[in-house]
Amino acid sequence: MARLEFFYDYGSPYSYLANGRLPELAARTGAQLIYRPMLLGGVFKATGNRSPAAETIEAKRRYGAVELSRWVAHLGVPFRMNPHFPIDTLRLMRAAHAAHAQGVFAAFHAAVYPAFWALGENLGDEAVVARVLGEAGLDAGAILAAASADAAKTALRATTDEAVARGAFGAPTFFVGDEMFFGNDRLDFVERALRAAR
Amino acid sequence: MARLEFFYDYGSPYSYLANGRLPELAARTGAQLIYRPMLLGGVFKATGNRSPAAETIEAKRRYGAVELSRWVAHLGVPFRMNPHFPIDTLRLMRAAHAAHAQGVFAAFHAAVYPAFWALGENLGDEAVVARVLGEAGLDAGAILAAASADAAKTALRATTDEAVARGAFGAPTFFVGDEMFFGNDRLDFVERALRAAR
Known about the structure:
2 copies of one chain form a homodimer.
Chain A: E1 3-8, H1 13-29, E2 32-37, H2 40-47, H3 58-75, H4 90-101, H5 105-117, H6 126-135, H7 140-147, H8 150-165, E3 173-176, E4 179-182, H9 187-197
Parallel strand pairs in A: 1-2
Antiparallel strand pairs in A: 1-3, 3-4
């Protein structure tokens, strides 16, 4: 079975858009979808790259906003530019690893992404994260406690370091074997690679 | 009839890839394809942008080379990274306007793009340009003489200024009415805009 690795950060809007398309893509291609939560800020720091939102060239920044709106309209997904953006996602991404270790990653993931990019919640605020997780029926206290422990910190750092070592410079980044693909707009190439890998 | 404006520079490899796809796209959508030769270097200078080939972030530059190879393979077009790249295209882009004024743009365009990106010719060298145009049955002397005259210089400057004023920051850039699209990888969005404009 071909493996599709999805390196993402909840703070990346294009990762959100890609995320919604991945389960069907994996089903169509018979691929195993593997979530790899990383710290995008760490990737930027390691590579010297920066967020498209921090684009200094005015024409590119203006076009970037148009592009995002077009993708949202094209995909027909619920989307609201998070009013708290950019959000420090360090604790949230550690919590993703903690949720994984506790066997509740799927419910965590399903709760966090819409809260971030459809509801515009401030997920840099731990109280808001606790509320969102609680509303999804998760044990927020247990997840957030584990998110502050060494195992989650180490796991997030390792995933981020691995992404950088394999060539990532932004999010979303996909791997099919050693082949790297960057961006929501490369899922057609990802799909062809998965079909070729079967 | 919807109009599809194609702002390009012969020195842009992704403009070359897009160029090969445009006639069929225009035919499918019933759009009028309008070639707008601009000076990409002038666009970069005006906006502060730079060539992807001058990317300073190593991971992005490495990925950029992989991406280009993937697009070439996917589209199945003859392509050879021009060994003289980057080439100063100022005179060549002026010559495109001169060829247009002389009513031989189609033959000029059909000769120049493959020479640049399939054959790897040094089209920054006027003698090479003259040979390529001559082999295509064009009056190279007349075109190159006109390319040095004020009309061609003014036309190129005006097209470049217009592109920047309308929001362009790179090539290829497409317009469907006032809607701008950047990149060979946005031709699917261009196509949808053209269908919507009918």
